[in-house]
Structures are given as C-alpha cells and as structure tokens.
Design goal:
This protein is mostly helical. The chain has ten helices and no strands.
Length: 161
C-alpha cells in the first residue's frame, strides 16, 4: 500500500479540526505531490453527496471528478468548515462512529436536495454552493433528532449506501 492509499484511508476518519490540521501540514511540508482534486476526493461529506446524486440519476458513476471541477466547488470548500463542525457535533450527540459517515453524508445530501427542490433551485451546482444550508436541511428532515441524541437510530435503521 502506497502513501497515497494510506492517506485516502485515514482522511475520512478525521473530524473537521483534524482535517484542517492535516491540510495545513500538507501545504507547509509539500510532502505529498498529489493533485488537489485527489486530496479533496477524500471529503466524506462530498463522497456521500455524490453517492446520493449518482443513485438519484443526477450524475454518472464517474461524477465525483465532474463535481470537483464545477465552479461552485470553490464555494463549497469555503463554506465546508462550519458544516463539518455541525456534523462533528451531531456525531458526538448521537455517539456514532466513523462507519456511519457514508450513511450520514447520504442522508444529508438527500435532505439538502429536498430543501433545494422545495425552493425550486435544485442542481448539483446549487448543492455545492449552498452546502451551508445542509444543517438546516438535516434539522428540517429530522426535527430535534440531533439535539436529542437520536440520530444514531436513523443511521442504524438505514440500509447501506
């Protein structure tokens, strides 16, 4: 297993703060000579959203790289840290583990798509540029589940994605 494979396995297990520290270390050290899209492909929230979009027929199976090439992806990256903090808190309250993250990201993607469809602005680019609405969308789809620590039951009862 190469260094890049090890990094890909580790990154989805990190919380928002750890991801930011890793990004800074990589930038400062220049130790990994990888394409930016490869590092960002390890974003577990984006991976779940892409899985949702593929299953719903909004993207082809190779859609991940099409997503990171969109202009809205830069907006997504700027708005991502507080969203990841929201999910870090949700995970703590629900006492979930990293194995739940694909399901959590899928549910969050579905909730955001539903919110945007309700507002008449759904598109892949809209999902990326309005990622900051994801906590609102999850709360609307599952009112009080997060604060009550019940979100784990949603994840445990969902089929694998």
């Amino acid at each position: 297993m190469g260094a890049m494979d090890e990094v890909r396995l580790l990154i989805p297990k990190l919380n928002a703060e750890e991801l930011e520290q890793a990004r800074k270390l990589i930038a400062v050290s220049g130790g990994l000579s990888v394409d930016k899209a490869e590092v960002d492909a390890s974003d577990w929230l984006l991976s779940g959203m892409v899985t949702f979009l593929i299953k719903e027929g909004h993207l082809d199976k190779g859609g991940h790289f099409a997503v990171v090439k969109k202009k809205a992806y830069k907006t997504y990256l700027k708005k991502l840290p507080p969203v990841m903090e929201y999910f870090t808190q949700l995970e703590k309250q629900a006492k979930t583990v990293t194995r739940h993250r694909p399901k959590l990201a899928f549910i969050a993607g579905r909730a955001l798509a539903s919110l945007l469809e309700g507002r008449g602005v759904f598109s892949v680019s809209a999902m990326l540029s309005q990622i900051d609405k994801m906590p609102e969308a999850v709360e609307a789809a599952f009112p009080s589940y997060g604060t009550a620590g019940l979100f784990r039951f949603v994840l445990d009862n969902m089929e694998d994605v």
